[in-house]
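Appendix B. One record, verbatim.
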Amino acid sequence: MAQKAIISGITGQDGSYLAELLLSKGYEVYGLQRRASLPNTGRIDHLYGKKGFNMTYADLSDSSNLLRVIKKIEPDEFYNLGAQSHVGVSFDVPEFTVNTNALGPLRILETIRNLGMPIKYYQASSSEMFGKVLEIPQRETTPFNPQSPYGLSKVFAFHITKIYRTGYNIFASNGILFNHESPRRGINFVTRKVTIGLSRISLGLQKTLKLGNLDAKRDWGYSKDYVEAIWKILQHKEPDDFLIATGETHSVREWVEEVGKHLGMSITWKGKGLLEKGIDQKTGKTIIEIDPIHFRPNEVEFLQGDSSKAQKILNWKPKTTFSGLAKLMTEQDLVYVKREATEGHPVVTQQKFQV
């Protein structure tokens, strides 16, 4: 009999890649989708009709709904990827962020406990839990120091997962994933802002791209690589917590430069602070400007993960380089932007994704 897996957050970047991975392994996949007035299934539309793929409406804020769904499906594994996933937005909607990201996992774990089913549970934890870092690089043992409602909500979820693991003998594991991107990344995240914005500039559809903190440094990987680690975490013989990262750190500034290279741009920088500008050497035009609206109340300046535990125990390692990630994302967004130029309307804002 095929393994059954529930994926909350299946309409997101990681959820869609994980669904593909599990289907390729013969799973029956059940995706949880929040009811919305507008469709948000662009990342998984190509999966409808495939053998083993199922969708049902559910919400992490509704305990009774989760109880009915889990009891009916009787899954072997539950991958909780559902969240309000934007750090900046969490300052605007902190209560919603905590209700979904912190209490959502609690509701799932409590349902698993009450049903008494032998369900393996995966919690999507985040590098934002480390916040203003207390150790470099960050490891599974590094103390958390979150700097946003998002980061704090993920700390609660991390610890409640451990509490239910030790207190109720539930197979519950955390994956502390550092920043990971793909052509399916939401367009309000800085990596996609850059690939879309510079692609538009390269085709004359946009003059400048406005960004925030260029010096923020992140450990950026590829989502498709990281969902393999997610699956491996639940296949380990015992529940545990694993940090997933590349071990390399690059600034937003470096991301801009790398994307520019793949578009034939050579970007140099002039000025400091809010007056800093990025200039394309080939044209002499200013294409990057700083806008204070994109700064967060508390900024996380530096993240770098040590995934040696996952590499040793799970036999996992990242396959995609920083340059390779920039290349594949830029190439796809350039395709979208070329369509915009031809069709005369914004294509990427419709959230259509490379599959």
